[in-house]
């Protein structure tokens, strides 16, 4: 009798486990709802592209429509999107109120090509992609924030997905943040070059400063970055645009040097031709107008430290240095610069 009860118990347990397994793995616990992938505040920022790819016509970012549920799609689901600026306007309002000087901007029409605005999440998957081609990013100001805005306008899923952590906010609208970089700077993160062993000499007064601040490099082409010249700076946001335009230079990185395969020739020019003059001077020691991939230290027990370095010798003057009472601009003094600008990096991380 005991043996019979034991066998019966095992059989019932097996049936229960079988039923449980069927329930756990073969049923969809949640309805299939559709939404657009984004991070916090409905901003999608996995969008940094290489300016070299932009110039070659191969740069794009992927907007993702995904399907919720514990199972992959059991059939094809269709999603259509369109532009909608309501989220973009809300972003500017909530972050900057009426201060339009700080507003983010919609990406100009000549800087992208819309994807096919209708997509399909195929059976056996849980997402589809809308491929947005980017172009002409080098014509934009790297100081501004640019977005594309898209919203789901039709679908055949059970409903629009919602954010349970934010009182059911619908996930059908997204701001796609447009970011770009090259090997020397990025708009996605601060690449701040430390001024080390540098000096700036006022040619008129013969006074010399030894700046130790950092200078951020902004990518403006596949092989060029913009940064403030010498010991220039801007103090308040209201004057920032003027100061950036009249106090910045562009460094273009060219071919490898003959003597060092880790060094590249650099040429300098004004960011705005009518606002600043810059002249490259004869190399002095390590200030040889190059960009260097520098490896320092390292031994059998310690790893080396890697730096990207600009080593420059030039002079410049600001053509619109101070506005005078008659409305004309006073030209600033010539300043001679010996600059070593150093940014620490990880060459392994750069290859990821």
From TrEMBL:
Residues 172-324 form the BT-3044-like C-terminal domain. It comes from the Bacteria. This is Uncharacterized protein. The lineage of its organism: Bacteria, Pseudomonadati, Bacteroidota, Bacteroidia, Bacteroidales. Residues 47-157 form the BT-3987-like N-terminal domain. It comes from Prevotella jejuni. It holds the Pfam family BT_3987-like_N. Gene3D superfamilies: hypothetical protein (bacova_03559). PROSITE patterns: PROKAR_LIPOPROTEIN.
